[in-house]
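User: Please look over both lines:
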Amino acid sequence: MHMTSIRTWTKSLFVSVVLITFCSCAGGKDTAYSFEQEFPFTLGTVYYQDWVAGVREGGSGTNVHITIDNFTADVVILNIFFSNKKEKAQNSPQHIDQYVGYFKKKGRPDIVMDGDPMKEAQNSPPEAFPFQLKHDEAVLSYLHNNEIKYIKISNMERKPMIAYPGAKNDEN
């Protein structure tokens, strides 16, 4: 009887340790990332703007614009996180000091539903988004001194939507 209580106690201790380990790993989404309070440049104009194409196949999306002032050569701008998506920050064609994230709305992905689990295994799991952001917040990642750093940008201005014109009809 004494040996049984030791086994029970050992199993309980093991289960408790495993549960505590899993619970500590499943903390808040922002815990793995710390946001920089000071960075080697200044943020200028920051805004986001929805757009819609003039043709059905053209789609719609949101562009996030971030202007960098006092930019230094030892900084590389990497990505913009916005609306539960991540996009590569690209230099704006109009402004050398502005970066844009082009967030195109995508339709539903094709999902394989089949009685054969091997066919369903082809489905790719959704990518986890590392931040909890409000609708007017974004995160900018950049490389500085061989370290990836993050800036949280809040209260971004929302510019009026752009409705691009429809495609021209080439028939005369």
DSSP finds two helices and nine strands in the chain. The CA atoms of residues 22 and 115 lie 32 Å apart. Residues 2-25 form the longest helix (24 residues). Residues 13-31 have pLDDT under 50 and may be disordered.
